[in-house]
Design a protein that fits this description.
126 residues, 50% strand, four-stranded antiparallel beta sheet, mainly beta
């Protein structure tokens, strides 16, 4: 089992920045991929960003390209999501996901991920 704990969510105004963190523990492997998804009320969960183990492959949803940056610190088993220029439409619960397979390029589909965090709320007011 792999446990994922997200942090860093909160309430901000439009245009502000937030950085989400996701710490992985337990049966983490030497090769994996990690990602972020989000779910707004009444909507399906959607892909946000993903990163391969070495960080050479990153992928982003079109809606966040140029504003969000995913990164990771393998020594800390932690992945980050830097979110800049936040918009009200970014309001959602953000979930961290862990894949035991180091897919390349970094995977965008939920089915490629094996473990999920509980989520952290991000609310952007206009």
């Amino acid at each position: 089992q792999v446990q994922l704990v997200e942090s860093g969510g909160g309430l901000v105004q439009a245009g502000a920045s937030l950085r989400l963190s996701c710490a992985a523990s337990g049966r983490t492997g030497s090769r994996d991929a990690m990602g972020w998804f989000r779910q707004a009320p009444g909507n399906k969960r959607e892909f946000v960003a993903a990163i391969s183990w070495g960080g050479r492959s990153t992928s982003y949803a079109d809606s966040v390209k140029g504003r969000f940056t995913i990164s990771r610190d393998n020594a800390k088993n932690t992945v980050y999501l830097q979110m800049n220029s936040l918009k009200p439409e970014d309001t959602a619960v953000y979930y961290c996901a862990y894949s035991e397979t180091n897919y390349y390029p970094a995977p965008q589909t939920e089915s490629r991920y094996d473990f999920w965090g509980q989520g952290t709320q991000v609310t952007v007011s206009s």
